[in-house]
Every structure is written in structure tokens, then in C-alpha cells.
Backbone:
């Protein structure tokens, strides 16, 4: 069975693992997913991730989830914005802010996948993939 929205599937797997208080989650790998995960890691929402099981037909990514000392998740929310049925684009002057600037918006631009802050500094727009807070 083919999956229509693999990015939404990745975000849902992460969201479900956090609600179940897992320390790791395994996700099917792709270049887009690893680009999004590298942004989440750089912004401090998740721990490290690594691509494992590269010899099988579908490589997997093992993602380490972060929690505070009180066992509260660092990543509080994930919201998929642009979907296969309805693509959402933002110009360089229309890049949204998440939670008044506390959260992060992830964009797919002509220069690659980046945060909204980076896209705003480079003055480029793109497809709004997801909101993270």
C-alpha cells in the first residue's frame, strides 16, 4: 500500500511516541524526512537521529526524543500545513510565525529545506511544510 503523505506519517509517529513517553522512534527514511529531522535536531526539539538498516529495501531512521528533567517532552506540538491535496506556499514577505516567534516553521524552498527564520534572512519563500513548537 502506498502512502500519500509520508511527512505527515513521520510527524504522527513522533507525536505518538512522545505521548507514549518513548525514548526512540523508528521512521522510514527519505531525503526530505532527514532534512526535516536535521532542522528539528538543530533547533533542539529532538535528540540525535541516525539512518539505520541501509541494506534493506527501505532504510530506517532512528530518532532519539528529548524530555526535560521533569519528564515533560521538549517537543510540544507538530502541525502539518501543506498537504498533498492542498499545497500551501508563502512568499518572502508572507512567512508565518509560530506561537509569536517561539515555535518554528519549516519551509521547502528552492535552496533546500530550512526554517522560516533562515528563509526570511535569505529573502526567499517556499512551501510551508509544518509548524513545530
Residues:
Amino acid at each position: 500500500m502506498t502512502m500519500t503523505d509520508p511527512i505527515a506519517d513521520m510527524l504522527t509517529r513522533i507525536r505518538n511516541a512522545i505521548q507514549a513517553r518513548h525514548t526512540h522512534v523508528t521512521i522510514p527514511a527519505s531525503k526530505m524526512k532527514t532534512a526535516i529531522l536535521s532542522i528539528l535536531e538543530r533547533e533542539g526539539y529532538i535528540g540525535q537521529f541516525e539512518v539505520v538498516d541501509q541494506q534493506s529495501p527501505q532504510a530506517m531512521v532512528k530518532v532519539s526524543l528529548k524530555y526535560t528533567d521533569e519528564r515533560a517532552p521538549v517537543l510540544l506540538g507538530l502541525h502539518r500545513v501543506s498537504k498533498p491535496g492542498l499545497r500551501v506556499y508563502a512568499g518572502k514577505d508572507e512567512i508565518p510565525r509560530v506561537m509569536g516567534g517561539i515555535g518554528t516553521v519549516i519551509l521547502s524552498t528552492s535552496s533546500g529545506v530550512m526554517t522560516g527564520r533562515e528563509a526570511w534572512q535569505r529573502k526567499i519563500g517556499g512551501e510551508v511544510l509544518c509548524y513545530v513548537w
Helices lie at 6-19, 31-42, 116-122.
